[in-house]
Amino acid sequence: MGYRWKCKPNGQFVDGHERDDVVEYRQKKYIPAILKHRDKYKVFIDGNEDIPEPNELPSPSTTRRVVVWYHDESTFYANDRKCVQWVHESEKAVPKPKGKGQSLMVADFVSAEYGWLQSKDGKKSTRVLFRAGKGRDGYFSSEEILGHLASAAQLLRRDYPDEDHIIVLDNAPTHLKRAEDALSACRMSKGPTPDGNGLWGVMANVIENAKPICDKRGKLVKEKKHMADTKFSDGTPQSLYFPDNHPEFSGRFKGMTNILVERGFNHAEIKNLRAECPKFQCPPSQLS
């Protein structure tokens, strides 16, 4: 009849899979980036490496192979178990723990060529075991992601120096986070910050031993930082703050108007523009 006794198979998650911005990123950025190096990949057919014909071999300038590593994060629970099995007619219901139980997250890198990333002698790997949750290891934040990537890069440089490597991560928020001191227009003042208002900057997590610190209530401890310098079109750095020896605005934030003037905008044309309009709905006269 074509039926088999088994769990119903589940497909990939569809949440947002066909959203316009997701489709655009997938079609215009991700796929072209992957295909860019296809002549340098090993090709596998039915689990076996496909040996190309002589005329299909990479040219001398592209003899270095490219290996693609995928970042994998999987979470397992103490009460994970099979839900379908052969049960004898004499068996009765047995009490079991409520809920999924404690979790353990496993993060690692995997490739078709080498499997899970580890040293050539098998003594060192990049696998991370993480007990996510309040009162445990906290949460696998962007800081942990950066640390994980750094350990992978170090191992790849040491043990796989004859190949080039691409690491692919999904679009989870922790993988897309900006730098703590990245430029942000949120609540940015139009002119120099008033004297006595303290440092104007961005709130960043306090990091200790490559991990964010939490207070007694489990909340992340924050500190205010200068925003990082930006760059002019020619690559010259532009500071967003006046120098400490400035006669009037020592160390203070320059404000949007001064920053734009330094970038070539006409002061007379922008001085009457609003920094922000209520509900972001500006009248035509306030648009530029």
TrEMBL record:
Domain of life of the source: Eukaryota
GO MF entries: nucleic acid binding
Record-linked InterPro entries: RNaseH_sf
Name recorded for this polypeptide: Uncharacterized protein
Organism: Hermanssonia centrifuga
